[in-house]
Specification:
The structure holds 2 protein chains of 2 kinds. By secondary structure, chain A is an alpha/beta fold. Chain A has a domain of about 190 residues: P-loop containing nucleotide triphosphate hydrolases (Rossmann fold). Helix content of chain A is about 35%, strand content about 25%. Chain A is built from 11 helices and 11 strands. A 7-stranded mixed β-sheet of chain A has the order 1-11-10-4-9-8-7. A 4-stranded antiparallel β-sheet of chain A has the order 3-2-5-6. In chain A, helix 5 packs across helix 7. Chain B is built from 18 helices and 3 strands. Chain B has a 3-stranded antiparallel β-sheet with strand order 2-1-3. The longest helix of chain B has about 50 residues. The mean pLDDT of chain B is about 90. Classes of the chains: A alpha/beta, B mainly alpha. At the A-B interface, helix 3, helix 4 and helix 7 of A face helix 14 and helix 15 of B.
Chain lengths: ~280, ~425
């Protein structure tokens, strides 16, 4: 019992150092010249509890922006407010302005169905529909009426699977269940499903956290390829992953956006001491 | 105070000491479980053995071999296409005459009446039906098996079993049956009447066809109403309704409804459907409506559980693809929840099939001979038929009651088995 005390003390000391001031301002380069999405003074609440404090940041076209930070820092919440997936959580309330190409995503007349066709999402746990591989990918184009003929649909499915570098592995068994694939293949199937509707932005919520290192490497490779055509925002727990795949990195801490900078800079010369503390592993 | 000694060696000793006690209590628990299952199985076995031992006799029934003459003068019919003649015809005279010829030495009114009592008083009508199907038989003779009276049937079966029960028969009748038996002119046949006829006051002519059809129409209506309404309610409550005090209130009351005694639903049906909306009584429509009220809570509760068991990740996937909520439910949640919903519906239907109390309140307990042909024909249902037969004084109804129970139980077993089968079958997809 005696041995525990110094450790506890050390922890609470660290915690005090890591408190964030209410008037905390994001440091670094939050804003870009030609943004795809702009977020201004975004606050997110779950009932009375505020999960996101006053976040303002831009996402540039065709960039990969990584969001990192300790558990419970609000990075997933923030990501999910970008395609209004938070609408499904009844207690959740979003304030501030989130725009894509200058259009407010929270405008009353905006239809979330259209928004989600433009902003696709890949989830933490691979969640293919319990349908065939083909039907998984064809689902989006079907409900949005993107393919006029069966041939068009076949083409969309093939292209999407190719872009998700899954085609070679599954072309012989397109009509087998998507849930029969391995975890990594399932996640690439989910990516193929997301890009089948040609979204402009793809949100990825810890897409590799349920995967083994080899599958992770494949997905990271894929993200790099996809960034040529899509704008990608990725939440990750792995700093190495953020360093490998992203152009810019945003560091979240206790619901506040602490720092946004080019990835290289964040991992070599972070501007804010909290960022430094996190990437050097002092907590997390 | 002594400090507890927590060195590894000491701990290991303690663990070992407690181990045998823990193992013992686990073994004891297993035996309790086995005992409970044994008691349950024994109860079911006793029940089934009792029912089967009482009821198996009803599937065979006594027939007498008679040489009948379709005498036009005797029956008073010379034209089989004249409905009036058919109604006025003395059909029972045919088996009576045949019996007189079989036992020529019987004389006296009383003895003759006893003699005529050997055959069912519906035997003449069976011969009429045969004649109508084969008009060329009119005026000819043939040897044919004729349905025996239920007292004869009861006696003959008990006599074959070695414990003659002749309470309602005279010595002469017993003697005649012995003679018929010696000549091979009485035998047990498969009792097709049981499955092809409606109810009757005469046990040998009574069948469950009317009750089975009544149950069928009633259940069909119940299913057609309660499944769509129940599933729609469950989907709305689970997926669309805001979670607030109102929905909590509704949820509590659905659970309450599931626990309401079924006879209350019968009273409700009587007050609302019959007295207020003037739906005719005793018909499958009103029975189906009442059973719908009774089954709805079951279906709503099981459907909600089935919807809840669909993982939220599937919903997120669909919404993330830009599916509307309705598409999410229709394309993804419903197919995955359907096995559970169907299971719930079948269990609800099995409950409804076995229900008699609410139907007593809405007049489905009436004595109905005609087999219902639709939703608006007066009908009764299987459990009520069992209730009616169990209440009848004739001894032959004892085995009929058990036979009807066997039929009802086999329907229930088939339904419950198919529920299990469906669930296993459909769940594999995922």
């Amino acid at each position: 019992m005696n041995g525990m005390n110094p450790v506890m003390g050390a922890k609470s000391d660290t915690k005090q150092n890591l408190e964030v001031a209410d008037n905390q301002v994001t440091v670094g380069s939050c804003f870009t010249e030609a943004p795809k999405m702009t977020m201004r003074n975004v606050n997110v609440y779950y009932d009375d509890k505020q999960a996101i404090h006053n976040v303002s940041v831009d996402i540039a076209k065709n960039e990969v922006i990584a969001m990192i930070g300790p558990s419970g820092c609000g990075k997933s919440t923030f990501l999910r407010s970008l395609n209004r997936m938070n609408d499904t959580v009844e207690s959740c309330r979003v304030e501030g302005e989130i725009c894509m190409d200058g259009e407010n995503l929270y405008a009353p007349k905006l239809d979330v169905v259209e928004l989600r066709a433009r902003v696709g999402m890949v989830f933490q746990k691979p969640n293919p529909f319990p349908k065939s591989i083909y039907d998984n990918v064809a689902y989006g184009p079907k409900i949005h009426g993107l393919a006029d003929t069966r041939v068009d649909l076949d083409e969309i499915v093939e292209n999407s699977l190719r872009k998700a570098s899954l085609w070679e592995e599954v072309k012989e068994r397109l009509h087998q269940s998507g849930t029969g694939l391995s975890g990594g293949q399932q996640q690439r199937l989910c990516i193929a499903r997301a890009i089948a509707v040609s979204p402009e932005v793809i949100l990825m919520d810890e897409p590799c956290s349920a995967l083994d290192p080899i599958a992770t490497a494949k997905i990271e490779e894929l993200i790099e390829e996809l960034s040529q055509n899509f704008t990608i925002a990725i939440v990750t727990h792995s700093m190495q992953q953020a360093a490998r795949v992203s152009h810019r990195t945003a560091y979240f801490h206790l619901g506040r956006l602490i720092e946004v900078n080019p990835t290289e800079q964040v991992f070599t010369m972070p501007e804010h001491e909290l960022t430094e503390a996190y990437i050097t592993g002092r907590f997390g | 105070m002594n400090k507890p000694d927590n060195t590894p060696v000491n701990n290991l000793e303690k663990i070992r000491k407690s181990l045998s006690r823990r193992n013992r209590s686990e073994r004891r628990f297993r035996w309790y479980g086995r005992l409970a299952i044994f008691i349950g199985l024994a109860a079911v076995t006793v029940l089934f053995t009792d029912i089967v031992s009482k009821g198996h006799g009803a599937f065979r029934i006594a027939y007498l071999q008679l040489e009948v003459e379709y005498d036009q003068d005797l029956i008073g019919v010379n034209n089989l296409t004249d409905p009036e003649q058919l109604i006025l015809g003395n059909w029972q005279a045919v088996p009576k005459q045949a019996l007189r010829q079989q036992f020529p030495d019987v004389s006296g009114r009383s003895d003759k009446r006893k003699l005529y009592g050997l055959v069912s008083n519906g035997a003449g009508f069976d011969l009429k039906d045969r004649l109508l199907a084969n008009p060329l038989l009119l005026g000819t003779r043939e040897t044919i098996w004729v349905l025996a009276d239920d007292d004869i049937d009861t006696y003959y079966k008990s006599w074959l079993d070695g414990e003659p029960y002749a309470a309602r028969l005279t010595d002469k009748q017993v003697k005649w049956i012995g003679e018929l038996h010696d000549q091979g002119k009485i035998r047990l046949q498969f009792n097709s009447n049981l499955f092809t006829r409606g109810d009757s006051r005469e046990p040998e002519q009574a069948g469950i066809r009317g009750a089975v059809m009544g149950s069928l129409f009633t259940l069909l209506l119940t299913l057609m109403l309660s499944f769509p309404i129940g599933v729609a309610a469950a989907i709305y409550l689970e997926e669309f309704a805001p979670k607030n005090g109102w929905t909590d209130f509704i949820e509590v009351n659905i659970n309450n409804l599931a626990a309401v005694p079924s006879i209350i639903f019968g009273l409700l049906g009587l007050a609302i459907f019959i007295n207020f909306f003037h739906v005719p009584r005793s018909v499958p429509i009103v029975g189906g409506l009442v059973l719908t009220l009774m089954t709805l809570p079951t279906i709503i509760i099981t459907s909600r559980a089935a919807i809840k068991s669909v993982p939220p990740s599937i919903r997120e996937a669909a919404l993330g693809m830009g599916a509307s909520k309705y598409q999410m439910v229709l394309h993804h949640v419903l197919p995955l929840a359907l096995p559970g919903m169907l299971t719930g519906a079948i269990i609800g239907m099995a409950q409804a099939l076995g229900e008699s109390a609410p139907l007593l309140m809405i007049g489905m307990v009436a004595f109905i001979v005609d087999i219902p042909g639709g939703f608006s024909d007066p009908a009764t249902v299987l459990p009520v038929q069992i209730f009616l037969w169990a209440d009848s004084p004739e001894r032959a109804f004892i085995e009929k009651t058990s036979a009807a129970i066997m039929v009802l139980l086999s329907f229930l077993i088939v339904m419950n088995t198919s529920a299990v089968w469906l669930r296993k079958r459909l769940e594999r997809r995922w």
